[in-house]
Write a structure and sequence with these properties.
The chain is about 90% helix and about 0% strand. By secondary structure, it is mainly α. The model is unreliable at about 1-5 (pLDDT under 50).
Amino acid sequence: MKTAMNGSGRAGASIEEFLIRMRLLLDALNEEGVEATTALRERISASLDTLEPRIEQWRKSAAATTGYVREVVEDHPWSAVATGAVAGMAVGCAAALIAANFIPESDLSGRAAEYGRRAVRYTRPYVRRARKLANNYWPF
């Protein structure tokens, strides 16, 4: 529970640090007094003014989402574990497929194809036996 709040707190702190730095930059540009810096200062100021309400909206949305996720995980912990496992496997498979594109063709793809052929050759007799047993003991 505390780690989720710490993570969102750190993100909020880094956004606030960014806004503070931008305000300091605006002050420094304001002291310069050059027309180009004045125009830049006005553009940055306008951007910050439009950014602050959006950031607040994102914070509220993130807080609501984390609250909902926390409730779901507390109500159904094993479903959350299973969902995490499936999501982890999906991400791992996607990463393996992407990585396979960057590895030379002769290395990984050739080994995977050979492994697939051996797996089919090894399991074929067992599949035939299972079909024969299923046909012999089919209740209909």
